Amino acid sequence: MNNLPVRSLASDLPEVRPFGLPRLTAGMDMAARLDWTTHLSVHGPLPDLTLPQLTELATDIDLRGRGGAGFPFARKLRAVADSARKRRTRTAVVVNGCEGEPACRKDTVLLARAPHLVLDGALLAAEALGAEQLVVGVTQGPLEESVRAALAERGLSDRRGRRLRARVFRMPERFVSGEATALLRAADGGPALPPGRRVRSAERGLSGLPTLVSNTETFAQIAVAARMGAEYYAATGAPEEPGTVLLTLGGSVPRRVVVETPTGVPLAHVLESCGTGIGQGVLVGGYHGAWLDPSAASMASISRTSMAAHRATLGAGAVLPLSYDVCPLGETLLVARWLAAETAGQCGPCRLGLPALAGALADVLAGGGQPALETLRQYAGSVRGRGACKHPDGSARFVLSAVNTFTDDLAAHVLGGGCGRPVAGLLPLPTDDGPGVGERLAVDWTLCVGHGLCADLLPEAMRLDRDGYPVFDDAPLPDYLLPRARRAVARCPALALRLERR
Fold first, then answer.
1. In this structure, what DSSP letter does residue 177 have?
2. Residue 43 to residue 28: CA distance in whole angstroms
3. 90 close to 130: Cβ distance less than 8 angstroms
4. Which stretch of DSSP H or E encloses residue 364?
5. Rounded-to-integer distance, Cα 117 and Cα 488, Å
6. How does pLDDT run across 102-139, given as a tens digit for each residue?
7. How many helices (DSSP H) and strands (DSSP E) are in the chain?
8. CA–CA distance, 349 with 450 (Å, rounded to integer)
């Protein structure tokens, strides 16, 4: 087998574990990466499907997007086809493999180890829609290498004159890179940022063409279903939501693992099979998701319907239980600070609201009492529904969910001296060797006299306490703030402010 070396695939590939007969993960026990020959021997040839056949298949299995929004795949197909017919133009297909959240690794596993399965689904859609372009967006170099090799193995390229031009595109490794509109802008040569206005890619997406954009796992699922047929595909999983799903388990599990499980399986069973329990709560859906308390987590199953009953969603497929020996709100604060640093910096709710939200949570944990808690809720409400993308909404939902779930822990911080448990960093964040490294603000308190100029220049990262002294989080500053941070350092009258790289 002409496989890429394992070490080149990705720096942090987790273990893969199927529950029951593997579908998406079939063959991963045989090879580190399924090349074209191995892929065909495991999955067999791909049938040709017309647009009506592909749409009917997606409808029959109720295939929804597996990247977070859960939008019906069949409706996307129809919308793109209708737009192309009205405009009398061709179309484009985009695979969103930009997994910018450190808690999620299922798409990374697919692109690194089974790229041909993803391409199968994308090519099914491209042929059915008569697409002229196929783009796969990724954020990591090893994944770019894997997809490029897969395209070459199939004889696909971006050369002019081809009926379908196919390429892989590298995005910055940031949280907002997962926004479909950011990927489309960047692939067309623009900034890798959401546009700040609603854009319907089905009408005008890549190069102005009606564009089908969906997540990596979604395309892999339609490729599996095309080979099996709807009836056989639906023989596994919950009747109303057939098939399997990929989940990334982290948090207090002994080792991070990507599991493929049939829908309908109890959440508690999945956790127990991976060596852990529900603990004091489980975060589902990742860092734009929601926390389930032990009672809800013990009743929940792996399905959209079950999660919705508990006001949660599987989202991007991250499942993160927390053991009883850590402070859940402290763990949440670490993520809230990271989310604030991941802002694109192009709208007030992101640029000002998310740092303020993280700061308010820090005040609550520091014993700020009921006023700090009320400020936290006020900040969360002020950012929701007002951002240029969904990042402020998801981040506020994550923080509020923690506050509403861990009520005993919250009371210990608000009414007492804290819960007394440590913060261990169980929720995955970039390591010191990755994007988490950066410049942070620091103050020499022997020199600071509370002029307040720094907070005026950097309201996104600093605020003043009741005595006029600066308060800020010990988190890396996002790139867009660094020029103003350096200006604030240069203008500090007492020479007390500095930037440090840690």
1. G
2. 12
3. yes
4. helix 354-365
5. 51
6. 899 999 999 999 999 999 999 999 999 999 999 999 99
7. 21, 16
8. 27
For 445, the token pair is 């308190």
Here the tokens at position 327 are: 């402070």
Cβ-Cβ contacts under 8 Å for 273 (sequence gap 6 or more): 17, 19, 259
- β partners of residue 93: 134, 212
Q: Measure Cα distances from 19 to 8, 70, 178, 368, 404 in Å.
A: 27, 23, 28, 46, 32
Give the total residue count for the chain.
502
Show the CA angle centred on residue 31, arms to residues 27 and 36, nearest 5°: 75
The Cβ of residue 429 has, within 10 Å, a number of other Cβ atoms equal to 16
What is the token pair recorded at 249?
A: 């388990």
Q: What percent of the chain has pLDDT over 70?
A: 94
| Coil vs helix vs strand at 132 | strand
Sequential DSSP letters for 409-451 = HHHHHHHSS---------S----TTTTT--EEEEE-TTT----
pLDDT 10s digits, 276-328:
999 999 999 999 999 999 999 999 999 999 999 999 999 889 999 999 999 99
Distances, alpha carbon 199 to alpha carbons 184, 405, 458, in Å: 10, 35, 31
- Using an 8 Å Cβ cutoff, are 202 and 209 in contact? no
Cα separation, 417 vs 152, whole angstroms = 60
Token match 């001296």: residue? 417
